Amino acid sequence: MRALLAVLLGLLLIGPAAASTRIKDVAALKGVRDNQLVGYGLVTGLQGTGDTLRNTQFTEQSLQSMLDRMGVNVRDARLRTRNVAAVMVTADLPPYIGVGSRIDVTVTSLGDASSLRGGTLLMTPLAGGDGQIYAAAQGPMAASGFSVRGEAETLTQGVATAGRIPNGALIEREVPGSFRELPELILELKNPDFKTATLITDAINEYALQRFRRRVAVPRDQRSVVLQKPQNIIPTRFVAEIGDLLINPDTPARVVVDQRTGTVVIGRNVQISTVAVTHGNLTVRVTETPEVSQPNGPVINNQTIVGNGNAAAAGGNPGVATVVVPRTQINADEAGGKVAILRGSDLQTLVRGLNQVGLKPSDIIAILQAVKTAGALQAELVVQ
């Protein structure tokens, strides 16, 4: 955790030129976006790791329908193959892509197949949100995970029921519209912020005054900046030149913590008012060590009888049963906590103060939540 904070701190302390970011990296042109595609298909060629047709009836129905279309009648046959799996195929259709281009697809299992490794996806139509077919996917899969099962042990690494097919889908239909048909050019910020929108506007207008002798950008709100294309330049070149301009985007004061992984990300503008912090851990350990107690039984004819509930046969005296006596040991240990004064005028001072206390990531998360409750954390705390 300290090493990660040190690396992040080193990146933030580099000169202002290194922190500059291109406009194309913080904003995107409105209307120029991907479209999601989805389809249902079959993967064949699996080594006995496919769906169990008796449990996944939709796989059996799909296999029968496919064979019927190929002239093979298997309606009255009971299929028992384990080399076929039903899958969902998803892909992102890039903007303004032409017919005949190829895109990557992701394949995920839909039934009870244990692995898709080594399988081949049969031709699967991919439809968009409007129900139209835009691409067709087919080809051998590349699955990084594997699963090996024996009689008494199973070894699994990664996700064996998902994979990708690079360039596995062929574009069959173009999305209506073109770049030249956009009604207006609007830059939408990926992280909306009023100051960042103003910085983008100033950078574009400063460049446009030198290049076109006029201002071309007007901020609409914290999310968008409206552009006016000059007459003596084509839209593609204009957007390309605007996208390469450098700015220093402003970021809100925010702390993001993930309690599941112990990750703490502190923004550059986070500040903590002067506050005294102490943190100690209370550990309670309960240990159960049961003992078996077997008392001596009654003496009959100079012999000790150990009772088991059937002592009546040895002389009529009831036997003494063996019992388990509980033994419980409880220890409470509270580690001594250090009292430290935290005052973060900048990220470097804040990180140095947290490191002086010597805390683990889980402790840092608890302290940041308490500091936020006390009103001393001058930032937004996001808990995931």
UniProtKB/TrEMBL annotation:
UniProt superkingdom? Bacteria
Q: What is its main location?
A: other
Quote the subcellular location field of this record: Bacterial flagellum basal body
Keyword 4Fe-4S attached: no
What GO molecular function annotations does the UniProt record carry, in alphabetical order? structural molecule activity
Any one of the GO BP annotations? bacterial-type flagellum-dependent cell motility
* Keyword Protein transport applies: no
Pfam hit, one? FlgI
Q: Where is the signal peptide?
A: 1-19
Q: Which GO terms describe its cellular component?
A: bacterial-type flagellum basal body, distal rod, P ring; outer membrane-bounded periplasmic space
Q: What does the UniProt keyword field contain? A: Bacterial flagellum, Cell projection, Cilium, Flagellum, Periplasm, Signal
Q: Which family does it belong to?
A: Belongs to the FlgI family.
Assembly and partners are described as: The basal body constitutes a major portion of the flagellar organelle and consists of four rings (L,P,S, and M) mounted on a central rod.
Q: Per its database record, what is this protein's job?
A: Assembles around the rod to form the L-ring and probably protects the motor/basal body from shearing forces during rotation.
Name of the protein described by the UniProt record: Flagellar P-ring protein
Native species = Methylobacterium oryzihabitans
What gene does the UniProt entry assign to this protein?
flgI
